[in-house]
Every structure is written in C-alpha cells, then in structure tokens.
Design a protein that fits this description.
single chain; 132 residues
C-alpha cells in the first residue's frame, strides 16, 4: 500500500481523485461520475441564470428605447396638434388641451409606462448582477 501523502500528491499532479488511483477503474468511474455531474449541472444552471439575466437586460433596454421614442413622437404629435387649436380648455393652454383633452393622452400614458418599466427592469438587473 503506497503512502497516503504520495497518493494525494499523485492525484493533484494528474488531476484525478484518490479513488481513481486506489480503486479499480470501474469503481473509480462510478464514484467520480456523481461529482462531475454535479459540477456540470451547477455550471449549466449558472449559464442558464446568466442567459436569463441577459435576456431581461435586453428586454429592459428595448422597453426603455421604444418608450422614449414613442414618448417623443407623442409629445411632438401633441405639439403639432396644438398648433391647429383655436381655443383651449385646460389651464396648461393650447398644448395641455392637445395633450390631455384628446386621443393623444392614451399613447402618452402607454409610452410613459413603457419607459418606466424599462427603467425599473434595468435598475433591478444592474443592481442584482451575479447575486442570483
């Protein structure tokens, strides 16, 4: 029987378990397989978590950019519509009437909500990077 310290040194040199050195090959493979499977499973799970987080970040950026573009278009549309008004019904004047007393209010609310959701998703994902 070889010295225990030498068996440990050999296992480190060849990057194998001590079971592999001391037992029959069949027994060593059976005992080493669960440890390798656990490492592979953990690695796959970590890769999936990172991929999901990356997808959420991309989705957050998409919502933010789309929300800002649609919010800008809505505000420009309200400004153009305000130029055609001859009278107004809100204290915000012609522009407020065009924005809040017309059909433009619905796209304004939707685009503001998209922008806010994008911001919240990105804050969450950048705050919790690697903590999952």
């Amino acid at each position: 029987m070889p010295d225990t310290e030498k068996v440990i040194q050999l296992s480190r040199i060849f990057h194998v378990t001590t079971d592999y050195l001391l037992l029959d090959i069949d027994e060593a493979l059976q005992s080493a397989a669960p440890a390798e499977n656990n490492r592979e499973t953990e690695q796959r799970a970590a890769e999936k978590r990172m991929k999901r987080q990356s997808m959420r970040m991309h989705f957050g950026w998409f919502l933010l950019i789309f929300g800002i573009i649609s919010l800008s278009a809505t505000l420009v549309g309200a400004g153009l519509y305000a130029q055609t008004l001859t009278e107004w019904w809100t204290s915000l004047g012609r522009y407020g009437t065009a924005l809040f007393d017309s059909w433009i209010l619905a796209p304004f609310i939707v685009s503001a909500a998209l922008t806010l959701c994008g911001i919240l998703i990105l804050i969450r994902e950048y705050t919790f990077i690697g903590k999952e």
